[in-house]
Each structure stands twice: as C-alpha cells, then as structure tokens.
Design goal:
Structural class of chain A: alpha/beta
Low-confidence stretches of chain A: none
Largest sheet of chain A: 8 strands, mixed
Strand order of the largest sheet of chain A: 6-7-8-3-9-10-12-11
Mean pLDDT of chain B: 93
Radius of gyration of chain B: 21 Å
Strand content of chain B: 15-25%
Structural class of chain B: alpha/beta
Radius of gyration of chain A: 20 Å
Strand order of the largest sheet of chain B: 6-7-8-3-9-10-12-11
Helix content of chain B: 25-40%
Number of strands of chain B: 12
Shape of chain B: globular
Distance between the termini of chain A: 34 Å
Oligomer: heterodimer
Number of helices of chain B: 11
Strand content of chain A: 15-25%
Chain lengths: 321, 317
C-alpha cells in the first residue's frame, strides 16, 4: 500500500546567533491512510518541528536542509507558494496547543470556521454557513447557530479547542495534525477532546498525527508510536508493543520516571537534563543520560534495529554480535 | 491524634472583587495536615487551590475562617507577630525562573533567608549555602552563578534549597513540576521525598496531575469551584471515591495501562462569580436529584477520615 505521507531522512536546522541548532536530524517515517500515529517526546525533541515541516510553516530562521516529504504523491519540498496554500487547511488540517492564540480575536467564530471553505472556493457562502454550523454541532458546541456570532474570548478553553478542531476538519482533510491539543486544558476537558478526536476519526476516516509529551495519552487512540529524543527517533512500533515491551533505554527510563495513576511503582529519575542541540552529544544523543552506555554509543549514531514485526529501536544494545 | 496536626484550616473563605462582581475563590474550606505528612490538593484550574496556598502561609489574608499553625491561630497576627512563624513555613512556586531574582547570584538568594532572620555569622551563612546546594544535588561552587545559567530543573532545586534553608517544617508546593520536562520531574519528586524523610517535612502539595499527587500524598483533598468536595486518605480516595466529581476526575486521567471504561464529564466548570445554587457540581452531575439544586451539601464524615460533600454519597453510609 502506498503511504499517505512518506518522510525520508528529514533534517531541519535553525540558524541562531549562537550556532546551528539541529532540531530534527535524520528522521524517516511513513503514515498510512486512516492510521493514527503518535509522536511522543519532551521539549526540544523535534516533534513539533517535524510536523511544521510537513506544512512548511517553519519560522524564518528554520530550514529544511535535506530529506524529502512526500504527501499523497506530491513532494512538499518542491511545491510553490500557491500549491502550498492549496494544501494547508484543505488537505492537511492542524490543531495547535493554545487555541486562544490560534484563533483571530476580532473575527466571529462562525466566520473563522467558514473561512477555509471560502478561501479554497469549495462552496458558496450560504453552503459554507450551513456546513460550519453542522461541523460546530458535530464537535459538541451547543447552539451552534447562536455561538457562530460570538468571538473567541466568549468561549472557554475547551470550547475554543473544539472550534479549532471544527476549523481543521471543515474541508475534510486527508491528514489531521494535532500538536499537543490538550496540554493547556484541564484533565476532564482533555478526556473530552481526545474522545472527540477519536469520534471525528471514526466519522471522517482521515489519518491523524498526535503530538504529545504524555505517553499515557496515546494508549487508547494511537495505532503506532514514534518516540523522539533530541531530534532523533529512538523507537517506533505499535502502541501496545512499545508500552508493554519497550526496547530503547530512553523509552524504558521514561516509563520508569513518570508516575502513572494505575501503576504503583518506585520512580527512577533519568539523571541530567535534555542536551543542547547546538552542540549535541556525539554518537547516540541519549548516551550521557543512559545507564547502558558503551564505547560505541559515544562514537557512532545507532541505526534503527529491528526488534519485532514493525518494531524498531535505535540502540547499539540490539546489535547482534 | 490532635497533637500530630501541624496545620489546620477551618471554614476558610476568600473573595476577590472583579468590578462589581465577587469571585468566590475559596468558600468554607476546612482540613488538617498532620506533621510529617503530605496533603495533596487537586482540582481543575480556577477551583481555588493556589488561593489556598497563598492563604495558608498568609501571603494574602482570608475573608473568613481560621488558619491554625502548630496550635496557634495565626489568622490575624500582625506582621511582627507573624515573623517567627514565617521562618517555619515556606512555598515553592510553579515557575522557578520567575521566583528567583535574576540579578542576584544563587548564593545571595539563599543567604538572604539567614540575613532576614539574623541567623549566623557571614562565614556560617556561606557554609550553610554550600551545604544546602549540595543537599539539593547542585555543585556548591556554582553559588556565584546567576539563575539564568541553570536549567529549569536546577532552578527548581535552588528554590527548594531556599525553602529548606531555615529548617522550616511546612512547605507549600504549588504545582512545582508543571514547568519541568517529564524526564526531569521525577528528579524533583525524588528530592522532595528524600527531604521529607530526612527533615520530617510537612507538605501541602498542589497539582493538577493526579498521578503525581497519588505518588506523593498521604491524604488528598479534592476541590471544585472553591469548595472541598472530598477529603480522605489516599488509599480510600483512589480505591473508593465517593463524590461524582472525584469519580469522573479519576476516570479522566490517562494511563499507560489504558482505561477500560472512561466516564465522561459533560460540560465545564461554572463561573465562580455566579456559582450555581445548591451543590456547585449539580449542573454537571449525572446523579443529580431535586435537593442538589436547592441545598449546599455539607462536608460529612462517611467513614473514618473519609469526608464527602454530596447529598447522595453521604446518605449512602
């Protein structure tokens, strides 16, 4: 089967006065139609940068220095500005962490949800109004017709995130990217939003990339996971395989270090802190914090080793003698 | 048992005026914290948990109720009379970067504690600063560095060093992990646990992260819209939650084990300017009956040390 999204050897660097920051350094993955992929990592792992690259929304000092991003047969890195605009919002929708700063404060919510349809010339104004109303109802906004006349500040955080989801889905995109969509929300509202994303996935069948720092959030939603650390992929596989049988020392330590409401355990902290990506550690970027470090870890970047079906881990421990 | 209680609040109230309206931030909250134990205070944003943090160490003054510290009513003490108590209670805030003065070296920031309370000679203070930095896992030679030279986790260690400098007994931790990366959070949790064991500290640990609260606390108080809705020993609260809000809250927390059946909490917290009549949770409650819209439920003890403010749950005893 042809993947919907195929990323190969992506490298994204930021040019800062202090030096070159290697935010994503050689990332490859595929996403198939209808699949939900979770990209998990801490701040600075490159998880957000890797998806902003798909939409070519990097800040001015960020550059894709190598690699390829093929989306639905098109090489995104070769698209013109006009072609990119056709893609954004229509074929790929995105939901960001903070809905307040993603919505325009001086335009009514109704107009904002209608905008992608009108901008991409997909229908008449009347039809756009009807479709926006229907979509707002679908994402769980009570009295959609009345609330379309209101402004974002009149909505609560959770309701704003529902508006963002309606906006991202209004053109029926093939891919929905959700970048930490629940991080600024309370836990009961987080559960509502994840439930909504799941039901929207069922309704429209699009592929989804969920970006999160919270491994537990992926359990009931994501088919497959990518664990990132300091710009590199550490491990990838089916969600249940990674959670029940983690292979990479980073994934294992993350599971040991984070308290879980259902698991009674002694916490084992990961020593040290996240490295600078301007001068990243040599070899495996996790080696200074890893408890299994060998000589080769300091010298060579580990490739992805096959652990099991569809389960790969970038760690020298898996190398067979 | 009573004498083991270090901190106790009784019918605590705090209102903030916002234009002509009154925000009911804390409404009639009572609980005890035993010496050497940790009380976890949980609830969603805006429920009043940080206001309690500030009230309990008198950073702000209550509009009603009492705060008892080690048997003494400190609610209305003057600043001067309060000073000996200030030494005994400390707070660690969420964002370490903004709670450390960027223009002072780390050594000066910690030494300030001794200077304010006139303790020790300059040499002694210098020695204590080094010991404190070492105790929280930092290189003592870094005392002449400025806060911005440290990572977030290290900055939080500095805040903790400052909080234990005066051998305080009681430390309020107000979301101390929220600004930190997940791989660093466990380091700070461990440090807080070790210090508690070593120094016999009593914590009020405020967090929206129930997994962390479960890990650290002995007792847990659940707040909703300025009120305490449930209060129990940790095991009782997690094994046998009684308030419908607690039940849905616990069910909303994701786990790597997955959740068999998630309960969905409909709607969102109401506005504290205009709280609903009767039980604050009634507009969202799945079990609501007539009385819930009319009468505010009292916090009743339904079994040993397990308190709940719910007309239905408390009648179940």
């Amino acid at each position: 089967m042809e993947p919907l999204l195929n990323i190969e050897d992506l490298r994204v660097y930021f040019y800062r006065p202090e030096g070159v920051l290697r935010a994503v350094d050689g990332l490859s993955y595929k996403l198939y139609k209808g699949e939900v992929l979770g990209i998990v990592g801490e701040s600075g792992s490159g998880k957000s940068v890797s998806v902003l690259s798909i939409l070519r929304l990097l800040p001015a000092n960020g550059r894709i220095v190598s690699g390829s991003i093929i989306f639905d047969g098109k090489n995104i890195l070769e698209l013109s500005k006009e072609e990119l605009r056709d893609l954004r919002g229509k074929e790929i929708g995105i939901v960001f962490q903070d809905p307040m700063s993603s919505l325009n404060p001086v335009i009514t919510v109704g107009q904002q949800v209608m905008e992608p349809l009108l901008w991409h010339n997909l229908c008449s104004k009347n039809e756009a109004y009807e479709r926006a109303k229907e979509m707002l109802g679908l994402v769980g906004i009570p009295l959609p017709e009345e609330r379309m006349k209101e402004y974002p500040f009149q909505f609560s955080g959770g309701m704003r995130q529902r508006v963002m989801i309606a906006l991202a889905l209004i053109c029926r995109p093939k891919l929905l990217i959700a970048d930490e969509p629940t991080t600024s929300l309370d836990v009961t509202i987080q559960a509502q939003i994840i439930r909504l994303l799941k039901s929207m996935k069922k309704e429209f069948g699009m592929s989804v990339i969920l970006i999160t720092h919270n491994l537990a959030l992926t359990t009931n939603f994501c088919d497959r996971l990518i664990i990132m650390y300091a710009g590199n992929m550490m491990e990838t596989g089916k969600t249940k395989d990674i959670l029940s049988n983690p292979a990479h020392p980073y994934t294992k330590s993350l599971l040991d270090a984070v308290p879980d409401i259902e698991v009674e355990k002694e916490l084992v902290p990961i020593p040290g802190s996240i490295p600078s990506l301007i001068d990243p550690p040599s070899g495996c970027r996790f080696h200074p914090r890893c408890s299994y470090t060998m000589d080769i870890c300091r010298e060579e970047v580990p490739p992805l080793f096959n652990i099991d079906t569809d389960h790969y881990s970038a760690c020298w421990l898996h190398r067979r003698a | 048992m009573e004498d083991r209680v270090l901190v106790s609040v009784k019918n605590l109230k705090k209102y903030f005026s916002r234009g002509k309206a009154l925000v009911h931030a804390v409404e009639d909250v009572s609980f005890d914290i035993k010496r050497g134990e940790t009380l976890g205070l949980v609830g969603e944003s805006g429920c009043g948990k940080s206001t309690i943090a500030r009230l309990i160490i008198r950073l702000i003054n209550p509009d009603g109720g009492k705060i008892i510290f080690d048997g003494v009513d400190i609610t209305n003490l003057s600043e001067k009379a309060l000073k000996p108590f200030r030494r005994r209670m400390q707070i660690v805030f969420q964002d370490p970067a903004s709670s450390l003065n960027p223009q002072m070296t780390v050594g000066t920031i910690i030494r300030e504690q001794f200077a304010i309370h006139n303790i020790g000679t300059k040499q002694e203070q210098e020695k204590w600063v080094e010991e404190l930095l070492e105790r929280v896992g930092l290189d003592p030679s870094l005392k002449d560095a400025y806060p911005h030279e440290f990572s977030g986790g290290q900055q939080q260690r500095i805040c903790i060093a400052r909080a234990i400098a005066l051998k305080s007994e009681f430390i309020v931790c107000d979301e101390p992990l929220s600004a930190l990366d997940v791989s660093v959070q466990a380091q700070i949790i461990k440090l807080l646990e070790e210090l508690q064991k070593e120094l016999g500290l009593t914590y009020l640990f405020i967090s929206h992260d129930l997994a962390v609260v479960k890990h650290l606390s002995d007792s847990i108080a659940v707040m909703y819209l300025g009120k305490l809705v449930e209060y129990a020993k940790k095991e009782d609260l997690f094994d046998n939650p009684l308030h419908p809000y607690t039940i849905t809250l616990l069910s909303s927390v994701p786990s790597i084990k997955g959740k068999e059946e998630e309960l969905e909490l409909k709607g969102e917290p109401p506005n504290p300017i205009n709280p609903p009549k009767g039980c604050p949770f009634n507009p969202r409650c799945p079990n609501k009956i007539d009385i819930c819209e009319r009468e505010i439920p009292t916090l009743d003890e339904v079994s040993d040390g397990h308190f709940v403010a719910c007309h239905i749950a408390s009648g179940r005893r």
